[in-house]
Design a protein that fits this description.
This protein is mainly beta. It contains 2 helices and 28 strands. Strands 2, 4, 5, 8, 9 and 10 form a 6-stranded mixed β-sheet that branches. Strands 11, 13, 15, 16 and 17 form a 5-stranded antiparallel β-sheet that branches.
Length: 343
């Protein structure tokens, strides 16, 4: 018993010595970036960021964030051990390059720094905090080129019950489209700007919105996205819809399918969309995503390399289920984790 207690005590001592009792946030000893002003009129410009950070248990990663002059979403690098240019994780100097595109908003960008250690303590300095310690907190940007936005589709139909929709489009790197609803029955469900993804020579954006239910006549509304108009058509409460089937099964090899929609009158509009939280769904609408009057929705199912799967398509306020058989067997490796594994 004594030996067991000794072993437990030694293990606990080693655990504490490892730094698990450390509650102090990492310290930013020095911070700088160069140059302090850039002109992006001729080409994208690089800004070199340097951070000197210390921590008793070791710095895990840090984020340097540049925020736009309007206070909107900006960008910045996540810096980890791969960016350390000298020292070690307990006392090291880190460096990274931030590229500002030609469409970067002109004016004064503010900077903030967040540092986390290996056991979850976090240190943070906003622009005011950086300046109070003698570090730079602002970057001047000039010569910006105007952003342009293109919508992949310009309209969508909804039944009287309403529902949710998504608008996608393309733009340049660093551009975030302003978004506004022009009608009270249409609500932008995210922030008042599009969420932009991608990099390189271009990006794509998405805007989420919701259409309220109606008990009256058909109505039309619009959403303005970066100066582009997206039209929402909603059918009257008198419209009724039916599908020729409510599901379809597919082999692992995938294939194509269709859904026939019947409406009470030719003026009854509807839309079809894949219900998925992922932008990489295995089912895609290929034709008939929006229609008025009776019509057909065509879709494609990609090959399945793994376990059996199911997804749904929302059509005219109704649910159509797509079932796909399993493909190749997926083997999963097992890992033994020690108490000191860090992720």
């Amino acid at each position: 018993m004594k030996t067991l207690l000794s072993t437990i005590f030694i293990f606990f001592s080693a655990f504490v010595a490892f730094g698990q009792n450390d509650t102090t946030a990492p310290e930013i000893k020095d911070f700088s970036f160069s140059p302090s002003s850039i002109d992006v009129s001729a080409a994208p410009q690089n800004v070199v960021v340097t951070v000197h950070a210390t921590d008793a248990t070791g710095v895990r990663f840090m984020t340097v964030f540049f925020e736009t002059p309007s206070g909107g979403f900006g960008f910045g690098p996540v810096i980890d051990g791969l960016h350390r240019v000298s020292g070690d994780e307990k006392d090291g100097i880190y460096s990274a390059v931030v590229t500002f595109p030609q469409t970067a908003s002109p004016g004064t960008w503010t900077v903030s720094v967040s540092v986390s250690d290996t056991i979850g303590n976090n240190g943070y300095l906003d622009a005011a905090g950086l300046v109070s310690r003698g570090f730079p907190g602002q970057l001047q940007v000039s010569g910006s080129q105007p952003c342009t936005f293109s919508l992949n589709t310009t309209a969508q139909n909804f039944t009287a019950s309403g529902g949710s929709g998504i608008i996608t489009g393309t733009t340049q790197v660093g551009c975030y489209p302003p978004v506004s609803s022009n009608n009270s029955f249409i609500t932008i469900t995210g922030a008042g700007s599009g969420t932009t993804f991608g990099g390189g020579n271009g990006s794509f954006f998405s805007v989420l919105y919701r259409v309220g239910a109606t008990s009256g006549a058909a109505r039309t509304g619009t959403i303005t996205i970066g100066g582009q108009i997206f039209t929402v058509n909603q059918s009257s409460a008198d419209c009724a819809y039916s599908l020729d089937s409510n599901s379809q099964n597919f082999p692992a090899s995938g294939g194509s399918g269709s859904i026939n929609v019947t409406t009470t009158t030719s003026g009854c509009g509807y839309s079809a969309s894949v219900v998925s939280n992922s932008p990489f769904s295995f089912v895609a609408i290929t034709d008939g995503a929006s229609g008025s009057g009776s019509g057909t929705v065509n879709f494609a199912v990609t090959p399945n390399p793994g376990a059996a799967r199911t997804i749904t398509i929302a059509v005219a306020g109704q649910v159509f289920t797509v079932n796909q058989a399993a493909g190749a067997t997926v083997r999963r490796k097992k890992f033994l984790l020690s108490p000191f594994n860090i992720f």
